[in-house]
């Protein structure tokens, strides 16, 4: 669960932030069972069942992807290295070119995929951060003054304008929207270099 970071709000006030365990513990300790909890990676609300004791609530927390991996049937490949065989359909000219590459088709395909991932990772990071900030803003900041213009500034990569437009927002909502948006602006400036 270490890869989750959540933030909890009660109305327009931020009451907790951190790992799921920390957030649920703070909610239960403060008697804030009606809190709205957001996953900071996606900006989506987290559906929690906060009935019962703290231990009951912690036992119902969603597991991370690593915790919920189901055993896979034994198949060809190198499972200890994470190699999983799958089918790829290519035209004969593609197979011919791949067969001529040093290391063969598998090595060439892995290099192509890694290069494509590296080339698009900054844009992907920016898009994910924009979407997370926008989801949160719609949920709690949608009635703040200038919300639509702030959302436009977020997607346009206009950090100063975004800050200017969110300045009059309620403090906790403004600060969290800026916190989520920072990765979008950071990724955008890295792309421009």
Q: Taking all residues together, what is the mean pLDDT?
A: 85
As a percent range, the share of strand residues is 5-15%
- N- and C-termini, Cα separation: 35 Å
Instruction: Compute the number of strand runs.
Output: 3
Low-confidence stretches: 65-69
Structurally, the number of domains stands at 2
Major beta-sheet overview = 3 strands, antiparallel
Structural category: mainly alpha
Specify the helix fraction band: 40-55%
Tally of alpha and pi helices: 7
The radius of gyration computed from the alpha-carbon positions, rounded to a whole number of angstroms, is 22 Å
Looking at how many chains there are and whether they match, the oligomeric state comes to: single chain
Main sheet: strand order? 2-1-3
Gross geometry: flat
Summarize the structure.
With about 190 residues, the chain is mainly α. Helices cover about 55% and strands about 10% of the residues. It has 2 domains: about 55 residues; about 90 residues, no CATH class.
Describe the structure in your own words.
There is one protein chain. 53% of the residues lie in helices and 8% in strands. By secondary structure, the chain is mainly alpha-helical. The chain folds into 2 domains: 6-59; 105-192, no CATH class. β1 and β2 (13-18) form a beta hairpin. The longest helix is centred in the middle third of the chain and has 38 residues, at 104-141. The protein is flat.
């Amino acid at each position: 669960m270490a890869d989750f970071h959540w933030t909890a709000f009660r109305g327009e006030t931020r009451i907790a932030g951190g790992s799921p365990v920390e957030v649920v513990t703070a909610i239960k300790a403060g008697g804030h069972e009606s809190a709205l909890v957001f996953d900071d990676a996606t900006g989506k609300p987290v559906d929690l069942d906060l009935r019962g004791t703290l231990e009951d609530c912690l036992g119902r927390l969603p597991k991370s992807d690593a915790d919920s991996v189901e055993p896979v049937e034994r198949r060809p490949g190198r499972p200890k290295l994470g190699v999983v065989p799958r089918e790829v359909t290519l035209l004969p000219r593609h197979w011919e070119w791949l067969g001529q590459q040093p290391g063969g088709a598998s090595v060439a395909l892995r290099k192509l995929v890694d290069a494509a991932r590296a080339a698009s990772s900054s844009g992907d990071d920016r898009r994910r951060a924009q979407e997370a900030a926008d989801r949160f803003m719609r949920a709690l900041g949608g009635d703040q003054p200038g919300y639509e213009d702030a959302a436009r500034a977020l997607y346009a990569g206009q950090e100063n304008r975004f800050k200017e437009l969110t300045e009059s927002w309620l403090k906790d909502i403004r600060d969290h929207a800026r916190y989520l948006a920072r990765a979008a602006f950071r990724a955008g400036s890295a792309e421009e270099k």
